Amino acid sequence: IQRWLHDTLAARLPLESAEAIVDRGGIYALVGATGVGKTTTIAKLAARCAMRFGASRLALVTTDGYRVGAHDQLRTFGKLLGVPVQTAQDPTALASLIASLADKHLVLIDTMGLGQRDARLAECLAALDAAGARRLLLLNAGAQGETLDDVVRAYAGERTAGCILTKVDEAVKLGPALDCAIRHGLALHY
After folding, report:
1. What are the CB-based long-range contacts (under 8 Å, 24+) for 155-158?
2. Would you give the DSSP letter of residue 153?
3. Among 28, 37, 128, 170, which lies 20 to 30 A Cα-Cα from 100?
4. In this structure, are strands 106-110 and 85-87 parallel, antiparallel, or unpaired?
């Protein structure tokens, strides 16, 4: 039964190689609900990129102008890596900033956390799309399956590069998160 389960999951769950994002490079916006771990995940990806390609090949951008201290946390990570953090306050500034970072191997955009029913979500995703960012959807591995489905329906789109499960260490079971990724055809990173 264990072998069958392994083979079935392997056949249905698209997996990305461990370093696909860092190796491939590009512009990625980490999106998801408040508190899902977007800023922490950016710090981990940024560290991998800086170690592999050098800090000068990396750019960190934040669009979170609402959460108190949001810029500070990312700036602290950036300072540790020797990478300045740039802020984009609106869609026009984001598109202009991304265009100015064309020489970077990897651009990571920290977005503000929004609930899947937040009225501002469509505008935020449209701004990311207009700037040419691919979305990495962060999903809380401990959330209920129905909640995860709701999040994916709200956040996923043509420019979604896949998902990253967060809070795996806090999850009682991974079944609902893996089921959600499989049913929505989301490639699993990390």
Report:
1. 155/31, 155/32, 155/116, 155/121, 155/125, 156/184, 156/186, 157/125, 157/129, 158/129
2. H
3. 37
4. unpaired
